[in-house]
Request: fold
Amino acid sequence: MALLTVAHVSELSPGEARAVEVGGRAIALFRREEGWYAIDNTCPHRGCPLAEGEVEKFLVTCPCHGSQFDIRTGAVVMPPALAPVRPYRVVVQGEDVQIEVP
Ligand code: FES
Reply:
């Protein structure tokens, strides 16, 4: 496992998200009032970017067909997607936002 810096804290406000590439993976990074969360950016249904979805509480809605995932666990909570996405641990060290990738 490696902790890789993907953003600076000041770059995202609570409620914002962005797609990042790290360790060859496309990851959606979310900043919420409660903290930072990261899951695979690619929706397992047809591949749309979850970083562009609306987030309410801890649920992101895929912008294409409305699948919902829990950004804390990657669990799918609303079809048409049937498979979960991978969650990643996010660590904030000073100004650096880091994601743990295998
Ligand atoms: S691509 Fe995400 S719900 Fe279809």
